[in-house]
């Protein structure tokens, strides 16, 4: 038996990348997994993720949906509750980047990032909290970023959305604590993903030289932190931001 046996986790944007790593780690610890992405098919990895999770012997289903759409999210969460019976853990991981310097950033770039990264978290929390309240327990994890703590030139929209994720977690933690619901945020630093692996080697080296542990993080590093926050090991922790960045921002 794993430390999440008997629990159901809902993870957004989990067909691949960090979201998939979290889903796999949770499933290894016995959690049933409902995950979402814009598209669930072979081309975008959703079906393969379903198969890999199912091979771990847990109940799993991928759901296609637009996380930034309030009504769509409400209907999706209702279906997940019907399919799984409970929602014990919510990981708001869905996110995109549309970088650009402030004076060149378009309204469309700003709106798209805020909607997918921040509004989606509001949508899912709004839909899941009533379920968790009836259960008198739940753990909400918002995927933020170190740039949401410290800012970053050329990423005003992304940084603002991630700072919002932090404030959202703290506010929900204060509101929902009396109902037995915890809310925390994870702020990853430089993580080796498909996106960062396309950066020029010079840029990657500059980043890594700033990290005391002298390496980029892995998706498994983030998944391990998420597992801690999802489990009863962190039962007295709420409203916190854990920077998983190798010491880059001490």
Counted beta strands: 7
Strand content: 5-15%
Going by helix content, strand content and strand pairing, the class is: alpha/beta
Low-confidence stretches: none
Helix content: 40-55%
Instruction: Please give the order of strands in the largest beta sheet.
Output: 3-2-1-4-5-6-7
Radius of gyration: 17 Å
Through-space gap between termini: 36 Å
CATH class division: Alpha Beta
- Give the count of structural domains: 1
Shape category? globular
Order of helices and strands: EHEHEHEHEHHEHHE
CATH fold type: Rossmann fold
Q: What summary fits the major beta sheet?
A: 7 strands, parallel
- Using the 3D structure, state the CATH architecture: 3-Layer(aba) Sandwich
Function: Catalyzes the NADPH-dependent reduction of beta-ketoacyl-ACP substrates to beta-hydroxyacyl-ACP products, the first reductive step in the elongation cycle of fatty acid biosynthesis.
InterPro entries: 3oxo_ACP_reduc, KR_dom, NAD(P)-bd_dom_sf, Sc_DH/Rdtase_CS, SDR, SDR_fam
Pathway: Lipid metabolism; fatty acid biosynthesis
Organism: Hoylesella buccalis ATCC 35310
Describe this structure as you would to a colleague:
Strands 3-2-1-4-5-6-7 form a seven-stranded parallel β-sheet, sandwiched between helices. It has helices at residues 17-28, 46-54, 70-84, 107-135, 146-150, 156-176, 201-209, 219-230; strands at 8-11, 32-37, 60-64, 89-92, 138-143, 181-188, 241-244. It is globular, with a radius of gyration of 17 Å. The protein contains eight helices and seven strands; from the N terminus they run βαβαβαβαβααβααβ. The protein has a single domain (8-243), classed as Rossmann fold (3-Layer(aba) Sandwich). With 250 residues, the protein is of the alpha/beta class. Helix 1 (17-28) packs across helix 8 (219-230) and helix 3 (70-84) runs parallel beside helix 4 (107-135).
